[in-house]
Specification:
Layout: H1 6-14, H2 25-36, E1 42-46, E2 53-59, E3 67-72, E4 91-93, E5 96-98, H3 102-114, H4 116-121, E6 128-133, H5 143-153, E7 159-162, E8 170-174, E9 177-185, E10 189-190, H6 200-219, E11 234-242, E12 248-249, E13 252-260, H7 266-289, E14 294-303, H8 313-322, E15 327-330, H9 336-341, E16 346-348, E17 363-365, H10 366-385
Parallel strand pairs: 3-6, 3-7, 7-16, 8-15
Antiparallel strand pairs: 1-2, 2-6, 4-5, 5-17, 9-13, 9-14, 10-12, 11-13
This protein binds zinc ion.
Length: 386
């Protein structure tokens, strides 16, 4: 394949509609073909349905510890957004490139791929790995299989760079992001005879009150020295569904809730406490009215926090490559915590800004792509001599 610039590559990548609900196999095939054009082999790691896949590739000596560039191929939906043009056909106005995913995060993917010829020009002493995932935007579901592949097939890596849009600033930490659903099952009946049923909404209300209590408790005890803007773990309920009519006792109620944890272990402790409250207080009360009443809580996703690791190899290199002195934290979650939890020093640094991502007429500045190419060039130079 001929060498494409990062802007040409971004144009191609944006052209694939990879909203998380859809298959990403076309973009994976494009990347695989592009890499194969340079003689670089890809490992395709499909999901259970076969409609989505991760792609992992290595340039350089895979048997040595190396560096990982990581990005997700999926993008957030455009539903309900009034775009000025087709979100999946990139357009340029002055120094801005518009299209879904330009910032989050196909701009980074384009820079990774544009770096391939330079990575191959001279032998690398340490390998550079490419990790392309699916389903990041719906709970970082795909990347786990990449991490599993890496830990089984490769030596431990020196540093992972996750290219979420940070304006090419160095981000060393973010909170975790955990999604849960609790389903409350009582017994439906007519509202004139509540004694014959078990009101699932009333009992869901008790459970939600318990969560409300956790939220207040955490807020009242901010963590000293926390690197986060909001220096405590947050808990919230975002969706409630239940009932069919005002004059009916609802037999079912479900609610979705969210935890943004500041550190590892917090989620497990909160969920255990919630389950204990449910098992000891709520379920016994429900079963007095109907023996088969249940409360079930399950995880929709559980993205671990990226815990700031001052002075880590990833942080030191990212500061040098990006020409930055400061390391910050962000409010959104990413795949970085999953790499870190597997023992790899990880940092988030990528082109574009989160304020420009996910929006109508998402865009990225050309200057951001140039900075990212500069970052990757410095990484390549480092990997040659490392
Ligand atoms: Zn992203």
């Amino acid at each position: 394949m001929t060498h494409l610039s990062e802007i040409e590559l971004l144009d191609r990548l944006v052209g694939f509609n990879t909203v998380s609900s859809r298959s990403n196999l076309d973009i994976v095939d494009f990347i695989k073909t592009y890499l194969a054009g340079f003689g670089v082999e890809s490992v395709i790691i499909p999901d259970a349905t076969g409609t989505k896949a991760n792609l992992f590739a290595t340039i350089g000596p895979a048997d040595r510890p190396g560096y990982v560039l990581s990005g997700h191929t999926d993008v957030v939906p455009v539903d309900g957004q009034n775009w000025s043009r087709d979100p999946f056909a990139m357009w340029r106005e002055n120094d801005r490139l518009y299209g879904r995913g330009t910032s989050d995060m196909k701009g980074f993917l384009a820079c990774m791929l544009a770096g391939v010829p330079a990575m191959l020009k001279e032998p690398l002493a340490a390998p550079i790995h490419f990790a392309f995932s699916y389903d990041e935007e719906v709970g970082c579901l795909g990347v786990y299989d990449i991490v599993e592949h890496m830990t089984k097939a490769l030596p431990p890596q020196l540093a992972v760079f996750v290219g979420e849009p940070t304006g090419m600033g160095v981000v060393g930490g973010h909170k975790g992001s955990t999604g849960l659903i609790t389903t409350v099952t009582g017994k439906a009946c007519h509202s004139s005879r509540p004694d014959l049923g078990v009101n699932a909404i009333f009992h869901a209300h008790d459970l939600i009150g318990e969560l409300h209590g956790y939220a207040a408790e955490l807020r009242a005890a901010p963590e000293a020295g926390s690197p986060f803007e909001l220096p405590y773990t947050t808990v919230s309920v975002g969706v409630i569904q239940g009932g069919t009519a005002r004059n009916a006792i609802p037999g079912d109620c479900a609610f979705q809730w969210d935890i943004r944890a500041t550190k590892a272990g917090v989620v497990e402790a909160l969920v255990e406490r919630f389950r204990a409250f449910s098992d000891e207080k709520v379920v016994p009360a429900m079963r007095q009215g109907f023996a088969d009443s249940t409360v079930a809580t399950s995880f929709a996703y559980d993205v671990p926090p990226l815990v700031p690791d001052a002075g880590s190899h990833a942080e030191t290199l990212a500061k040098r490559f990006a020409g930055r002195n400061e390391v910050t934290t962000v409010n959104y979650g990413s795949e970085a915590g999953i790499f870190q939890a597997a023992g790899m020093p990880t940092i988030v640094c990528g082109p574009g800004r989160d304020s420009e991502a996910h929006i109508t007429d998402e865009w990225i500045a050309v200057e951001q792509l140039e900075r990212c190419v500069g970052f990757i060039d410095k990484l390549i130079d480092h990997a040659r001599h490392a």
